[in-house]
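Quick one: co-fold with flavin-adenine dinucleotide.
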Amino acid sequence: MTDDKKYNPVTPKIADQLKGIVGAKYVIFDDAEKLEPYSHDEISGREYAHMPEVVVRPENAAEVAAIMKLANREMIPVTPRGAGSGLSGGAVPIYGGIVLAIDRMNKIIELDRENMMIVVEPGVITSEINEYIKDCGLFYAGYPMSLETCYIGGNVAENAGGAKAIKYGVTSRYVLGLEVVTPTGEIVQLGGKLIKDVSGYNMIGLMVGSEGTLGFFTKITLKLLPSTKAEVDLLCLFKNSEEAMSIVSKIMTTVGIVPASIEFMNNCAVKGACDYLNETIPYKQAGAMLLITIDGAEEQQVERDYEAIGEFCLDNGAIEVYIADNTTTSERIWNIRRNMAEAFNAFSSRQGAEDIVVPPASVGTMVALMGEIAEKFDVMIPAYGHAADGNIHTRIISRPEWSDEKWRQILNGIQSELYQLTAELGGRISGEHGIGHKRKNSLPYVVSENYIDMLRTIKRAMDPNNILNPGKIFDL
Ligand SMILES: Cc1cc2nc3c(=O)[nH]c(=O)nc-3n(C[C@H](O)[C@H](O)[C@H](O)COP(=O)(O)OP(=O)(O)OC[C@H]3O[C@@H](n4cnc5c(N)ncnc54)[C@H](O)[C@@H]3O)c2cc1C
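Sure, here it is.
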């Protein structure tokens, strides 16, 4: 039996009960135009979309708990939704039912300077956290490239990574406490303002990255770090991807400096973004680029570090190293990197977006193999991503003359080769965007059936009716 067979529809009577919980104004029902924006996230293909039957916008944990209890009683699926910037279909209600949107739960509850922590609701936009604390000598180190649009709740659910993961880690490193509404509608506190806590299983570890399938987060306690005082970006141009990638780990192992980020972009990716933005940086002679950010507590130290890294790059094959030591130039370069996905979305609606991750030392091999795949299948594969942590984003772009059917066959062939190579290198099919429903059929390429069974056992124990975000990551 598939997951959807047992679910009941949302009737006008159920919609009235939901209105009774959150107020009529915060329920969207029987209005296709207003429901449509909740039917998809940022994946480009329409085949991943699915309409919800009702959208509910609660204000607090008690309302979320009441909705979960109602959904369990009536056997209606519930899909949590953040800002909808996801790239794996996690917030898409594939069996219809209720979409539980967190946009009204958007308060910063407490800044605790003495403990260097902040308590927030899940609907706070990620970049607003640093905006809020910028004059306090503190910062939150989570840095997904979508930080100006995504919500912190979505980051916790996806265990978002981003450009600064090599130095600062991913979201899980900063989540100290969670208030969670369970799939059956209980409110539970996990962790708190604690740096250490081994009082039972590591439930926060389980919740972070659970893609909205194990609990609904209603309050999040985050660890903050002392602000850095200086930051400089280097844009290093290389002849080709292999030369650029071969230097990445040496920056850390030979020069002995861990930059805040080392981003990789091949020529095809830079060209796409520059054309899209009408940008004129001198990329034509470079087959690939590294964008390296060095930060620190002291200006002189940062200067010494970026000079050492810049010289090392020039001694090891870089054609040119540009220094961006002011906000305007820095923002100009980062804007190119941040807009790569957008640029290719505008270029073609038929494309595959990949998020594979391999051990950092294998990233050069992976990029070279991608080049071979592009040649073999005669497609364009712009590659960019977080080079230092082994996470490469690729877009596989369809040729305009191919029919939909031919494109689907070719994409399947490419993905099959790509995932097998990823598995051989000890990698995974998603480093930060998640499995959702987009990648669930490909998960067995890289993990064992025993592992997926372990996930199923946890899901069944916590969500006996399979109400919360069913059909994501794996099928029961
Ligand atoms: C241009 C662009 C750049 C991106 N760059 C990065 C990047 O650098 N790093 C990265 O990691 N990701 C990146 N992403 C992907 C995306 O922004 C992240 O996955 C982000 O964490 C999703 O947050 P959201 O609020 O949009 O969540 P949504 O897309 O709305 O939902 C994502 C998942 O979270 C669940 N969820 C949301 N809120 C809750 C809650 N309160 N409780 C439980 N579950 C919840 C949903 O059910 C869903 O499974 C990028 C996306 C775009 C479009």
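If it helps, The chain is about 35% helix and 20% strand.
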